[in-house]
Specification:
With about 60 residues, the protein is of the alpha+beta class. The chain has helices at about 5-10, 15-20, 25-40, and strands at about 40-50, 55-60.
Length: about 60
């Protein structure tokens, strides 16, 4: 995501993601596709590792296209 490498996201199949057990990540695929279509660039992102919740968290802000 931080490299703006949309081809990498497109190269992964739905089966690859589901096999990895990361169904929640599918929301990020939709976001990546939308941001690429709009020509929006990533302005800020962060990764928060946690032992309290079920999963780590990622936050992102995109510039308006």
């Amino acid at each position: 995501m931080t490299r703006q490498d949309h081809a990498l996201w497109r190269s992964r199949s739905l089966q690859d993601v589901e096999h990895a057990g990361q169904q929640e990540v599918l929301n990020w695929w939709a976001l990546m596709g939308a941001m690429e279509s709009l020509g929006s660039k990533l302005a800020w992102s962060t990764f928060v590792e946690t032992s309290i919740f079920n999963s780590n968290k990622v936050f992102a802000i995109y510039e308006a296209a």
